[in-house]
Amino acid sequence: MESIQSIKQRFEIIGNDVKLNRALEKSIQVAPTDISVLVTGESGVGKESIPKIIHSLSHRKHAKYIAVNCGAIPEGTIDSELFGHEKGAFTGATQTRKGYFEVADGGTIFLDEVGELPLTTQVRLLRVLENGEFLKVGSSQTQKTDVRIVAATNVHMFEAIKKEKFREDLYYRLSTVEINIPPLRDRKDDIHLLFRKFASDFGQKYKMPTIRLDETAIQLLLRYRWPGNIRQLRNIAEQVSVLEGQRNITAPVLNSYLPAPGDTNLPAVVGSQKSDADFGTEREILYKVLFDMKGDLNDLKKLTLELLKNNDTEKVQEENETLIQKIYGNNGESRPSEKEEQMEVLHLPEPNIEPPVYTPTVEDKYHFAEEIEEEETLSLQQKEVELIKKSLDRNRGKRKAAAAELGISERTLYRKIKQYDL
After folding, report:
1. What gap in Å lies between CA 384 and CA 393, rounded to an integer?
2. Contact 157, 118 (CB under 8 A)
3. Four-residue CA torsion sign, 376, 380, 386, 389
4. Given this model, what pLDDT does residue 316 score?
5. Dihedral (CA of 190, 191, 197, 200) sign
6. What is the pLDDT at residue 76?
7. Is 359 helix (H, G, I), strand (E, B) or coil?
8. Going by C-beta distance under 8 Å and a sequence separation of 6 or more, which residues neighbour residue 23?
9. Rounded Cα distance, 422 and 410, in Å
């Protein structure tokens, strides 16, 4: 069995951190077996080194080693990439193609960013892990493969399982042994060692003297959190090596290359709680608008019924002045359309909106229009027909004059005449 030190030299791994050494030790121990391994850790910590170590120390070292970035393959083609496809299985499948699991038979497959796999692909992968069987896309013939799987992810797997984005049974099949790579901020003693190695490599690459950090710059290097881990440290070392004329780097110079806290270009996970809350608030406002509209419509019906019964416009107007102002405004002008009111209410910021007193039920939400129709009685329609007939008679069939008398548009009157076959 090789020592940790020899593995570090062979794979150019720098650092003496206890957690890093433990991860390398576990890699050496599981390598001779066929146990599935899950490598976890933040983005940029160097997870890709572990499967290479495991493969090189296993009995499969002379067979194929294939690394697959699951997050970089589109969802529609990942099954074809991993398991292959038959000719004509889908548009563009002009010939039969072997997948990675068939090509790597007898070797090792490294599934990087395994947490990004679609659920349908996860089911196929689970079958491979359980009995070594898979189906090509478009085929009904089961094929066998003898592949060792090493997976890696920077996703918090239990959160993904909780959100039903990753299968729990697949997680336990993949993580027979879990190897965690510590973030760079937890390896304080290794940070300067890594920076010196990168600075030396870039000095040779670009044929210029190697940069060196003074004591203040070293302290700044150790205090920084390095959200991008080793990948970010290497990037900073390359920038400083190429752009700085002075090869002795001070803290102010180094600080100019470090992003401010919180100013990072790393992918950020947007929490779903805020969007869910916003949607809930908007939905409640919409319900409130709908029930307010229902109330206004009922008030309008009552007012119309009073007019039809009493046939005394002035008296009804005096008794229902508040209601008329609510519906038509102070100057008799029609209010904005319900559509405009809805849009206005939904888009104006109203952080202190009180929820409606009445909590809508499912029937209220989906049978709102049905209730309104039921409230329209036959007697109301008869009164409406009678009133239209009288108005037309008084105005000798002139629709424009009759519409003005009834307080409706000529278009509405025409529709009513056609509806009631007058």
Report:
1. 14
2. no
3. negative
4. 58
5. negative
6. 86
7. coil
8. 50, 179, 180, 181, 182
9. 15
* pTM of the complete model beyond 0.85: no
Token pair in block for residue 412:
């509405």
* Assigned token pair, 20: 């890093």
Hey, which residues does 109 pair with through a beta bridge?
66, 149
Compute the radius of gyration of the chain from its Cα atoms: 37
**Alpha carbon distance 399, 409 (integer Å):** 10
The pLDDT mean for the chain works out to 82
Q: What is the pLDDT at residue 315?
A: 60
Q: Cα–Cα distance between 144 and 322 in angstroms, integer?
A: 81
Instruction: List, in sequence order, every residue forming a beta bridge with 85; answer none if it has no partner.
Output: 97, 137
**Residue 31 above 80 pLDDT?**
yes
Average pLDDT over residues 330-343: 48
Tell me whether strands 108-112 and 148-153 are parallel, antiparallel or unpaired.
parallel
How many CA atoms lie within 13 Å of 307's alpha carbon, on the beta-carbon side?
A: 19
Those residues whose C-beta lies under 8 Å from the C-beta of residue 360, and which sit 6 or more positions away, are 287, 291
Give CA–CA dist 176/178, Å, rounded: 7
